[in-house]
Design goal:
Helix content is about 45%, strand content about 15%. With about 425 residues, it is α+β, with helices and mostly antiparallel strands. It folds into 2 domains: about 150 residues, no CATH class; about 220 residues, Transposase Inhibitor Protein From Tn5, Chain A, domain 1, CATH 3.90.350. Helix 1 packs across helix 2 and helix 13 packs across helix 14.
Length: about 425
């Protein structure tokens, strides 16, 4: 588990010896000069971590070179080098101590899978083709990041990069298979009956949303999930039945709850707006599902009853908050650059910075401890310059900086909510009923 001492050792190894070694391996650095692998990564990662809108002038000043000299280093070799740094960071297994949460105690790990997309300048389309758009410079190039986040310890298990047009399900296949006893939470973009069948056979639990066109078999009758739900009489607000899911007949539970009318109307409006934007029609099945919250899961009812299952499924939203932090506070999706080479390097450096930021947050605990993650990120970002300064000095200084960061994070209180129970509190109590 993470401590100040092993965090300091990991940061020093990544941003000094590993950075210099990888710079030589990738030929980013061919001979001794002002810019080295270590000072290049430190300037970019910590410069943009502290200020996501830092200019090339700001970063070049830290390196002691001209802005043009720094700009010239943003090239395909730099892409390769920074991708190797990112991969090395991900191999550093830093984890927080998992909190004691009653509803998750049956699982060894709880994974949330999701993707986020980052637009790039059009000249990067040969490397990172996007999904296109109405204008030639919109959507021509994009980078998709698939992330598997272990929510109890806060460890980012996978962060794999693909072109923007890669389907989410294809991106997810890059991750290692989850270990037996773990739980995987995923949205409809990752719906894959073959994977669910494999996971069930290997003792991996899963909870997934169900697309409108999927069929189910119940009581010997096969029908669409929308057809089944649409035939439920008024007053049937909760469903929890054993089914065979899809054409492969995956054994699982269908767990569904009828939504309040206001929620149904809001979902339907969103469906119609999305369909209009994509020049599609909203199907009758999709409209039926707007009125229900529907999941399939292989978790037995004895482990999670329907209400408990819905509370656990909500935890997947944490990965959406992670991406929001990357983009809003970390600036991963914004750049002052105008060329693909420059912006690609910036995105990679900022992603490394977000890994570092996540390591710092682990000193307070994983995402389920209930601390305000926005406030916690600010503490880490404000310490970025001091952390970089500590890397260039004796070990004691870096440990001192990180110790003070830990103290600041520990002073963060878990906010009290008057209306809605927090995720951490709801997961800590096993008194929910259907």
């Amino acid at each position: 588990m993470i401590t100040v001492s092993n965090l300091a050792a990991s940061l020093r190894a990544l941003f000094t010896t590993s950075a210099d070694a990888l710079a030589l391996e990738t030929t980013f650095v061919k001979r001794t000069r002002i810019i080295t692998g270590a000072n290049f990564t430190q300037a970019l990662v910590f410069g943009w971590l502290e200020n996501p809108d830092a200019t090339l002038e700001d970063l070049a000043m830290q390196l002691g070179v001209t802005p043009q000299a720094l700009h010239d280093r943003f090239n395909p070799t730099a892409h390769t080098f920074l991708q190797r740094i990112l991969a090395q960071a991900l191999r550093t297994a830093l984890r927080a101590t998992p909190p004691v949460l009653t509803l998750l105690q049956s699982f060894t790990r709880v994974y949330a899978d999701d993707c986020t997309t980052i637009s790039l300048p059009a000249d990067a389309a040969t490397r990172w083709p996007g999904c296109g758009g109405h204008a030639p410079d919109v959507g021509a190039a994009a980078l998709k990041a698939f992330t598997r986040w272990e929510l109890t310890t806060g460890a980012i298990e996978s962060l794999n990069l693909f072109s923007g047009r890669t389907p989410d399900l294809t991106a997810a296949q890059s991750a290692l298979e989850p270990e037996p006893g773990s739980l995987v939470l995923a949205d409809m973009g990752f719906f894959d009956l073959a994977r669910f069948r494999t996971w069930t056979s290997t003792k991996v639990s899963w909870i997934t949303r169900i697309p409108a066109q999927v069929t189910l078999t119940c009581d010997g009758r096969t029908q669409g999930v929308a057809t089944y739900l649409g035939a439920r009489p008024e007053g049937t607000d909760t469903i929890d039945i054993p089914i065979l899911l899809g054409g492969l007949g995956v054994p699982c539970r269908l767990v569904a709850r009828r939504c309040p009318e206001a929620v149904r109307v809001r979902r339907e409006a969103k469906q119609r707006e999305t369909a209009s934007r994509k020049q599609r029609r909203v199907s009758a099945d999709q409209l039926v599902l707007c009125g229900w919250t529907v999941y399939a899961t292989n978790v037995p009812a004895a482990v999670l009853n329907p209400v408990e299952m819905w509370m656990v499924a909500r935890v997947r939203w944490q990965v959406e908050l992670l991406f929001k932090g990357w983009k809003s506070q970390g600036g991963v999706a914004r750049s002052q650059g105008r060329t693909g080479d420059r912006v690609e390097c910036e995105v990679l450096a900022k992603l490394v910075g977000q890994i570092v930021c996540q390591w710092g947050l682990l000193l307070r605990g994983g995402p389920l401890v209930g601390v305000n993650q926005v406030a916690a990120r600010r503490f880490v970002q404000r310490r970025a310059r001091l952390i970089r300064f500590g890397l260039g000095n004796e070990d004691a200084l870096l440990v001192t900086v990180l110790t003070e960061l830990e103290r600041e994070l520990q002073r963060l209180k878990i906010p009290k909510r008057k209306q809605r129970v927090s995720t951490s509190k709801s997961l800590s109590h096993n008194h929910l009923t259907t």
